[in-house]
């Protein structure tokens, strides 16, 4: 099998030009990646194209949580929380080296317009734990007194602080989750290429029979022949639908922008992720999250109609979040000069759907009568007036009633997502959340397999995606720490320091054995360009097996250097650029273009324009 490397790009492109595919996926973010892994593993002849780098558009720009959606329980929207926490557990099973448990603190204040009061939070957390299956585990929620909140987070605003809650949430690396799905799809036989843009469709008897594309690196145009096409382009979904000349589609997407800022944890240190009302009485909540000796905070949630390829943080975004975070952490006094890096991304929301992770949802709510009945049952249980079985029975009844509201159609495979098929055969899978990507893909594959069986007469068996691991996830998900230690010791046996090897093992999981194959090349590059061996090793692996083409691909989407190790990135960027140029035999023109792109992104990420 050909390595998933830019060096094999022409070979992959030749296959796209010459072969007949059963499915072409347009879009290489998490949604397209989820469809690709299931399609390839189900025996469907699959191609995927992405006009940028994989996950560049949206899937590398999230809040970097596999978020449980506890916010929905303000409305007791049980269906969405049940879906979310169930899928979160599935993702941790199939990608055990990526999502990691990281309990979330929610302080409560005596203010107008707050999301939760103490009683509602306790009820919501108990319900949340029941849905997540962690009620009797070490991750069960805890209601904290005012003093306990202050002890846990000494810098938190004390005025008006009532109490708090601690409940399970999960850390995530969004772009790593995407590339690991992509890599497994490629291993399973999918032909996948970045920097290839869909420009139109060819038709046979009114049905799409080929995708017209442009190689954005060379300008070459060609067609990819296929039985079916699925549009998984997120915010660009309407753009792809507009290319379909056979159908007049209504506008579907209403993207919103989210912004995050990163500071050193010496400026604001938090012990664990913290989630709180803004205090602006605007119905929003904000995260403050520790990561790699840094602290980041966000997010905004504003309608967006600008350049989809380049959403940026504005002065308005900055002013809003600084006001909110400095209110909740009054000794921090964070200013623009403290911001080291930032990122802005789009949420591909379906127009008319209010189910944002950040601002709540209004679908699937319980009636006031049912809410009061459930809340009173929890209250009676907490006061010792009823037993647990009674509450569990009532909870099961409520969950069953709400979960059956959908019509069972593919369009309801996940809250906030939509699966539709145009008269030309163009399938569009849009909306949803990163946590739901596998479930969304499974719903799409059921429709795709049904259609392909009609078209080809072949039988396909849908892969059991709940247990099918992504690349790097081939180990026991109940023994993550032990597995990571084993993988790290493989690196130690090859001469790496344990700390370096463990860092690599956490990123690459069971692919650590593949990574170590490139150690001789990495050591040679490290010596030649005065680069730490561990960085050179990750880089060579990314060049050989993760389709890295530019320094930005490596710094922004295969690693976290750009956002969370910014100073270190500045130190090593020239060496990394030289290694990429040498390894891929790039022209001077390509090298210069990549240098300009990196410089522009550094300027944007560090908010240079705002600071000047």
UniProtKB/TrEMBL annotation:
Reaction catalysed by this enzyme: sn-glycerol 3-phosphate + O2 = dihydroxyacetone phosphate + H2O2
Biased composition (Polar residues): 400-417
Cofactor(s) the protein needs: FAD
Stored PANTHER family: ANAEROBIC GLYCEROL-3-PHOSPHATE DEHYDROGENASE SUBUNIT A, GLYCEROL-3-PHOSPHATE DEHYDROGENASE
E.C. number: 1.1.3.21
Ranges for domain Alpha-glycerophosphate oxidase C-terminal: 465-590
InterPro entries: DAO_C, DAO_C_sf, FAD-dep_OxRdtase, FAD/NAD-bd_sf, G3P_DH_FAD-dep
Gene3D superfamilies on file: Alpha-glycerophosphate oxidase, cap domain, D-Amino Acid Oxidase, subunit A, domain 2, FAD/NAD(P)-binding domain
Residue intervals passing through the bilayer: 21-41
Protein's name in the database: Alpha-glycerophosphate oxidase
UniProt GO MF annotations: glycerol-3-phosphate dehydrogenase (quinone) activity; glycerol-3-phosphate oxidase activity
UniProt organism field: Aerococcus kribbianus
Classification via Pfam families: DAO, DAO_C
